[in-house]
Amino acid sequence: MTHVGENIKRIRTAKKMTITDVANEHVSRGMISLIENGKTQPSIERLQHIARQLNVDIAELVETVPREDMQRILKEAIDLFDEVGNESVVKVAALLKPILNKDPAGYEAARMNELYGRALYHLYIVDIEQYNNIEENNWEVFTKKAIGMYNDLQMEWRVVRCYGFLADIEANRGNYQAAIDIIEQATSRLTVMDSLETRSIYIQLQSLKAFALDSLGQREIAHEQLDEIIEFARENIILGQYYHLLNAKAWRYYDDQKPEKARKYIEECYLFTKILKNESMTLQHEMNQIFIQEFFEGDYEKALDIAKGLEGRAENIRDYPQETINEFIMMTNDLEARVLTRLGRYDEALILFEENRVELNERNLGPTDVATRVLSKSYEALCYLHMGDQEKAEELARYTVDKLHNLPHSSFYHFAREVLTKVVSK
């Protein structure tokens, strides 16, 4: 516990205080000198007196890593985690693990444990070799440690967010009932929803629950769940999530072969974006329209017109980072390639697919978003089939079916199965 003495000396020096300044009738100058040099350990009472003299919380005297260092390292780790690419996540793990080995306490330590757990899961999904190189690589252990720390700090919404992460993992694995159980355990803790963060995470979890119910074939209950959460979002004005919930409801109706009901929600999505006048959400809505017109409505010419229009608008985007603009353009081109595939223009489609590889960043995407992006491989398989490359077509078609096998009740999975059947029957 020599770090206690080191912390006292560091804080005292930073405040330009002498040992005499810190000493009082409860702790002598000699005792403080012994403590600072690691020759003796102070009692709780003496630590309280020293903390009072230094005008700091007692926690700052016993922390294993100075809080300023924790804050700096945490910010660096968050910035790295937000970067695109596996190498940045590997750096996050390497940056955080030496700190976590010291078993720090406090808010920053909780965030580090949470972030480290997310980094481990990301590496498990996209880079198993790097994941296996990490000795302590059980993301659940670190996530649950974060939950315990947030509990101690009475930060309920962060506790629930950690549970949401674990529920997402179970859903991605196809363990839908386990995901529902975690969500119900988490949301039961939200007795007071008086903050934006709390209401936001509640909506995310209940939306995931609806997805899980739908994936279990309990579609009526899933619809009821979505209706409840849409009403909650309306009442609490969670605008971005409200749009996504409307869209999710429309897609469920399309899956139920009830396009008339689906179109009502799509129309509400459109009106919502017009009222909100948010450029990002408007662009997202138009991308969704390309997908809906191509995949659900079968109006390929209309889908192509929307895609071409979006291409022109992309050239005039100015207020977003170039990385965001590039991703938007790639996703639009990917959707256009799907439409061209439907129109039998396989040469053009294949060029677009090859030039616009959309990164599947599963750590930032929900199960439905992952599914819609993976689906491009089925279209690409059709292109290779018509180009005479049977082996490549089958490889891509099987990949898509394998990635979507946890969504057996979705139209995405059925489409992927149809493509695979068509490929192998040739």
Automatic annotation (TrEMBL):
Pfam families: HTH_3
Gene3D superfamilies: Tetratricopeptide repeat domain (1.25.40.10)
Record-linked PANTHER family: HTH-TYPE TRANSCRIPTIONAL REGULATOR, METHYLPHOSPHONATE SYNTHASE
Keywords: DNA-binding
Descriptive protein name: Helix-turn-helix transcriptional regulator
Highest taxon of the lineage: Bacteria
Residues of the HTH cro/C1-type domain: 8-61
Listed InterPro entries: Cro/C1-type_HTH (IPR001387), Lambda_DNA-bd_dom_sf (IPR010982), TPR-like_helical_dom_sf (IPR011990), TransReg_Diox_bact_type (IPR050807)
Taxonomy of the source species: Bacteria, Bacillati, Bacillota, Bacilli, Bacillales
Matches recorded under SMART domains: HTH_XRE (SM00530)
The keyword DNA-binding is annotated on this UniProt entry: yes
